[in-house]
Amino acid sequence: MKNLSHEFLISNGFTKKISDEVYYESQIASSEPSVIVYVYNNSASICIGTGREKDIKIESESQFSQFLETIQNTLS
Q1: How open is the CA angle 64-69-72, to the nearest 5 degrees?
Q2: pLDDT of 13
Q3: For the chain, what are the domain ranges?
Q4: Which one, of 2, 44, 3, 50, lies nearest residue 24 by Cα?
Q5: What digits encode the pLDDT tens for the residues 14-60?
Q6: How far is CA 50 from CA 18, 27, 35, 36, 53, in A?
């Protein structure tokens, strides 16, 4: 997986969080079911509703942008 830069994540609406490690979070949909995307060091995952997180394969920042846009368009 390509590492997503801090600047890229912030510009795409992600919020930097700190727990045991630094990660980024973006809540794409707040209505039911909620959709949240998490990005950790070298991994990304999506959580829909109360379901388990599913890994997302990331090839590039542009591919990840298209993924986010597709989800947002599907939910609107």
Answers
A1: 130
A2: 93
A3: 6-75
A4: 44
A5: 999 998 888 999 998 777 788 899 998 768 899 988 888 888 888 88
A6: 22, 13, 9, 10, 9
Rounded CA gap, 43 and 26, in Å?
Answer: 14
Tokens 């590039």 map to which residue? 60
**C-beta separation of 37 from 46 below 8 A:** yes
Residue-wise pLDDT for 5-16, tens only, equals 889 999 999 999
- The number of beta carbons lying within 10 Å of the beta carbon of residue 57 is 10
**26 with 37: CB under 8 angstroms?**
yes
